[in-house]
Amino acid sequence: MAITCVRCNSDRIAHVDAKCDLCLISILDKERDGYVPDDMGIGGGSVVTLVYCMECGQMMGKFPLPVSEMEKDKVKAEEPLDKGLIENLLKGI
């Protein structure tokens, strides 16, 4: 059964399932790397799962999500996120 976008009704829906060993997350003023958080709607552990519309960019899922553990965590990661590393990951380097 094909799904359509809740915003634009397009059937150009992409399903992404990926396995990764490095996940960089930034939300509010908190940064963390490691496994994929299982309470942020993007998968969990070493698996990233996304469903989105390729027409308008709408993310699909069950939203809103409850407050994540990372948001509840008042302690920032010891080292800031390396912006150069993120850019290289996005470029595929």
Radius of gyration: 15 Å
Largest sheet: 3 strands, antiparallel
Helix run count? 2
Question: What's the domain count?
Answer: 1
Low-confidence stretches: 75-79
- How far apart the termini lie comes to 37 Å
Encode the helix/strand succession as letters. Answer: EEEEEHH
Shape: globular
Mean pLDDT: 86
- Identify the strand order in the major beta sheet: 1-5-4
What portion of the residues fall into strands of 2 or more residues? Answer: 25-35%
Helical content band: 10-25%
Structural class, by secondary structure, is alpha+beta
The overall strand count is 5
Q: What would a concise description of this structure say?
A:
This protein has 93 residues and is of the alpha+beta class.
Question: Can you give a write-up of this model?
Answer:
This protein is of the alpha+beta class and 93 residues long. The protein has one domain. It contains two helices and five strands; from the N terminus they run βββββαα. The chain has helices at residues 69-72, 83-91, and strands spanning 13-19, 23-27, 30-34, 43-44, 47-53. The longest helix is centred in the last third of the chain and has 9 residues, at 83-91.
